[in-house]
Amino acid sequence: SRGLLGGKKRKKYPPVAGTVLHQLLNFGRFVEYQTELSRRHRTFRMLTPTCNYVYTVEPANVEHILKTNFANYGKGPMTHAVMEDLLGDGIFNVDGAMWRQQRKVASLEFSTRVLRDYSSAVFRDTAAELAGIILGAAAEEGERVDLHDLLMRSTLDSFFKVGFGVNLGVLSGSTKEGAAFARAFDDASEQVLYRFFDLLWKVKRFLNVSSEAAMKKSVRTINDFVYAVIDRKIEQMSREQHEFAKKEDILSRFLLERERDLGCFDNKYLRDIILNFVIAGRDTTSGTLSWFFYMLCKNPRVQEKVAQEVRNATTGDDDVGVQDFPAFLTEDAINKMQYLHAALTETLRLYPGVPIDVKYCFSDDTLPDGHAVNKGDMVNYQPYPMGRMKFLWGNDAEEFRPERWLDDAGVFVPESNFKFTAFQAGPRICLGKEFAYRQMKIVSAVLVYFFRFEMWDIDSTVGYRPMLTLKMDGPLYLRAFCPVKLHAISKLKTLSSTFGGDSDGWV
Ligand code: HEM
């Protein structure tokens, strides 16, 4: 009461749901554990020896943290330290003036027609290559395809092409360096998440032992690879001079900027920009596509509806081969695919690329639900648990039902960004949202036009790997059928052999 506390009103802290030790014990099933706790308390805290970790699924709190009191919540010193080895001073890892500058440059870049057209062309080409490889590698005698692995490789190729104008060749398996880079990047990203809960990580790093010794190795592999890409680009720039000015990829545009304003960023800064772009785009998009195809296999009715919509929006002509089909994926056709848009969004509701997102609290505050948070607390909004809350989505919250996003005319109706939080919200809302939907729609449309997918082992389920993004744990083994007419298949076969596949004898 006021009297007992010397006139001060007692603060109402969120209920304690456990400690960091409980989280470590549940590390392998972290997002489910957090979902269980969130069913009991919409806002709660976990005790650690240093600060409170506060978690919320309350949209009013999310709006407060991400928008209304934006200035009070940022990356902060702890996240910066934990992520610095991997993300340096890239846009994901900085606040204040440094963030504003990168946000401005990146927003300009993302809104250009040049980037839009160029990236769409890259996505179409990579999707066609992917379709060819699925046919060549898998369709023969119903061999299984690991679609998760193929999607990871093909999005990495697309991102390197759009970001840096480099043909990485990971999908076709033509370079070993690309694959080693991708592996090191995944390992480092997992270790970064672990650091949030490992109180001894700095000591381990200092002594260069256990998980931190592995982290050091991963970072070295990543850095060697990225600096080599930058060096190659600089060399190409001096060689090609006039031609270079026409380059459409993001790294070239930054290098041209540096030529105009010498010293505006060094190679280390470019390395940070590259890695932030890779983590932003590649893991989230390929992860979402993997979960999407997993959902399509578990829900054949939805798969059929998506395929029908793609045919209606493009061409019903079964004679169109894979090399010709992507040309039908115009902006107009993509915009017509409202059901596909809903199905991708439904995937993100249940499997958000960033499942739990932390913000540092810069000064004492009270959240809209009345709970107090202190300076130095780590405040998390939780897209994954939020997608499974009945109080937000109704009793069928855990069901995959794209229709929930459509009005009576079948048009997609967005939800509040503070309830559907997969892309964050407020001033730091994902910059690549439109970009990501475009890529995911192009890849999905090409694949469902030519194939029907089924789980290789009908009853199997897939898990996730605890890291910063929600990535599948291991392969997604599928069976791919080709329902289009033989004429189109023969064209597809020609293409698949162009990409190194061997499809003799199929069909
Ligand atoms: C399904 C795909 C995607 C999802 C679910 C997603 C989600 C998110 C989320 C949750 C954040 C906030 C992270 C944080 O600061 O804590 C974010 C930020 C960002 N995203 Fe995405 N993203 C996706 C695809 C992309 C793509 C394809 C790009 C770029 C091509 C991109 C670029 C960015 C950038 C630059 C930021 C930082 C924004 C800032 O801090 O101001 N994202 N994204």
Tell me briefly what this model is.
Heme binds at residue 430. The chain is an alpha+beta fold and 507 residues long.
Descriptive labels:
507 residues, alpha+beta, Cytochrome p450, 19 helices, disordered N terminus, binds protoporphyrin IX containing FE, membrane, transmembrane helix, Cyt_P450, Cyt_P450_sf, oxidoreductase
The fold-level CATH name is Cytochrome p450
| CATH classification class | Mainly Alpha
CATH superfamily caption: Cytochrome P450
Q: Pairing-aware structural class of the strands and helices? A: alpha+beta
Q: What is the averaged pLDDT score?
A: 86
From the spread of the alpha carbons, the general shape counts as globular
Which sheet architecture does the biggest sheet show?
6 strands, mixed
Question: Per CATH, which architecture?
Answer: Orthogonal Bundle
Bound molecules: protoporphyrin IX containing FE
Strands of the biggest beta sheet: in what spatial order?
1-2-3-9-6-4
Distance between the termini: 79 Å
Number of domains: 1
Question: What can you tell me about this protein's structure?
Answer:
- By secondary structure, this protein is an alpha+beta fold.
- The chain has a single domain (16-498), classed as Cytochrome P450 (Cytochrome p450).
- The chain has 19 helices and 13 strands.
- The strands form 4 sheets. The protein has a 6-stranded mixed sheet with strand order 1-2-3-9-6-4, sandwiched between helices. Strands 5-13-10 form a 3-stranded antiparallel sheet.
- Helix 6 runs parallel beside helix 18.
- Residues 1-6 and 496-507 have low confidence and may be disordered.
- Bound molecules: protoporphyrin IX containing FE.
- Belongs to the cytochrome P450 family.
- GO terms for molecular function: heme binding; iron ion binding; monooxygenase activity; oxidoreductase activity, acting on paired donors, with incorporation or reduction of molecular oxygen.
- It comes from Leersia perrieri.
